[in-house]
Structure formats: structure tokens, C-alpha cells
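Batch manifest, entry 17 of 40.
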Amino acid sequence: MGKVLDLLRQGVKLGYSVTGQNTTNFDDKTLKIASPRFLSLLPEDDNQTANLLSPSLFSLHNEGQGVENLTSLPSLIKNFNGADQQSWLNLIIEAAGVEDQAIKLDNDLKNEKEEKYEGKHSRKSYEEKHRGKDGTPLYFTKENVTTMYGDYETRKITTWERLMSTYTQEQKREMNDTGYAVLTFEQLHILYGPQSPYNSSEALARLTSINGTDAMHTYIEHDIHKMAEMKSFEIRQKDIVLSPIINSPLVLAYPTMSQPIVLSPVVFSPVVLTPAVLGPVVLSPWLFIPVILSPRVLSPLIVNPLIFSPIVLSPLVLHPLILSPGVFNPIVLSPLVLSPFILSPQVFTPIILSPLVLNPLILNPMVGSPLVLSPFVLSPLILSPQALFAVVLSPYTLSPLVLSPLFGAEVILSPSSLS
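Output type: C-alpha cells
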């Protein structure tokens, strides 16, 4: 890749020389080939960028030069008269689909008015709208529940109707405020008594023995504490601490990687078909650890150097790398979502066929780490200088460079917008 890009750069430099253009410091400039910018936020610096078939169009400022200034939105709109401005507005409204939505809302409002009569919705209209082609109601009634599920399920509906009809105003108010209410002695008999399909003598005896609302609230809290102590709820396993993993391939080892790994180096132990959820890795260097077909979610790497640890077919979601420098860690076919690199310098870590979303680089210098066929969105570079850097066939949007100089960089066939 480096030889191809260097050959390309030398060819463009020769073309500039033949046409009489200035080639001073050409090797230090960022080379852009067939990578137009759309809706750019800041003007392009011609002293730091060499453009070939990469114009800046429809920029949101009017500070550029040449084509960038002529096609900027402020310059275009400034010369519009009233009719032109209205035509431009109509084009935006039509392209955004606002007109279709307005018509739909207007039709919905008319239909709603037609269905109202004396301030109430027509039950007939509701029933007609919620019936199938054969007239079958698309909601449960006593009749269709009886037909489909029998008398037992109908008794459940009758029991709930009877129970709800006995709610007091105080109980209704309590349910609206807290989401639940304490049933009275009579209501407990309706729900758990011998005539109810929910009949439970044990539950009825246990609940009717509690006197008063305050005692019931205390009983509920006591039950919640007991549930929290049940063994079946102890789903978190013991953390891996001071336990190095060496020459132990992790294949289909979900429990191992889905728990914190602290002060436990991992060496020569490929991770295959082993997804990780809530498995942070802290102060546990990785050496020769390929991660293959092993998605990771909410499993950050913190103070965790990586060496020769490629990530292949393993999406990373909510997986930040913090203070985790790396060398020779290619990322291939592994989308990154909300997985920023923070103070984690990388050397020779190409990102290939791996889209990035909300994946900023913050205080994160990189060397020899191109992006190839990896579009990215909302992934700015903040105080993150890049050297021997290339963006190839990777369109990007809303991803500006913020105080992040580029050294020996090429941008090829990678249009950008709002960057």
C-alpha cells in the first residue's frame, strides 16, 4: 500500500510540475484524489493540501478561494432574489419530504374530525378500523377469547373486570402515582379465592395475614431483599485477577471473557467465537491475541497494551480503548460503534472494511494506520496527529480534524461532508 501511494504521489507531483504549478513542500502536503468535500465547515488550506479532482462544494462558509468560494451557500444565496429564494426553499422542502408529511398530517386530522361526534370517538368507527378483512376483531373480546381459548380464559377476564370495578378512588390515585396499590381483604378474596381461576389458598392466607398498608410495604421490601440474595440471581462470576492466560485458546468461552479481567496478561491465546458483554480488561496486556468472530459490547480496554492482536469479524460496541497503546493490530470487517480511542497511540493498525460510527480519536496519535473501505460518521480526530496516513474509498461525514495535523497523508476517492 505504501509503495502504491508513494507512486501515486510522485505521479501527481510530476503532473503539477508539467503544468507549471508550485510543488514546494509537496511531499508534506495531504494529497486528495477524487475526494470532493460537501458542506464543509472550515475553508481548505491550500498550503497544506494538494487537490486533484477534489473540489470543495456548497461549503457553509464564504472564506475559501476559487471554486470553494463561488459555490459556497452564503455566496449563492446572497445573489438570489425573492423568487429564487422561494424556489430554493421549495426544493429543500420537497427533497426532505416535508410536503408529503404535511399532506399526511392534514388527512389524518380530517379523518379524526370525521370520527368525532359530540366530543367522543365513535365506537363503530373504532371497531371498523380494527377488524380484519373477514370481519374478525383484531383485539380481544370476551366472545373471541371464549371461541379461541375456552371458558377458563374467559373467567380470567371476568375476574379482572370484577376486581377493577371494586377499586376505590384512593387505590386508583395510588396506582397512578406509584404504579401499584394494596388490595383490601375482599379484593384479595376476589383474586385468590376459591371462585377465581387464580385460586391460591397459600397466597390468600399469607397476604390476608398482613394488617395495614404500611405492613404490606415492609413485607414487599423484605421480599425484594430476599430475592436479591437468591443463588439464582448471582449471575456475576468471580473476576479474573492476577491470573495470566497463556497458551490457552479461548473458543466458545463466553463466561471467561464476559467478566472483568484485571492484572492478568493474555499471551498466545486466540479468542474465537467468544462474544464478551460487560467484560472490561484492565492492566492486562494482550500479546498475539487475534480476536475472531467475537463481538464485544461494553468491554473497554483500560491501560491495556496490545501487540499483534488483530480484530477480525468482531464488531465493537460501547468499547472504548483508554490508555491502551497498540502495535500491529489490524481491524478487519469489524464495525466500531461508540468505541473511541483515547490516549491510545497505534502503530501499523489499519482499519479495513470496518465502518465507524461515533468513534472519535482523542489525544490519540497514529502511525501507518490507514482507513480502507471504512466509511465513518461522527468520528472526529481531536488533538490526534496522524503520520503515514491514508483514507482510501472511505467516505465520511461530520468528522472534522480538530488540531490534528497530518504528515504524509493521502485521501483517495473519499468524499466528505460537514467535516
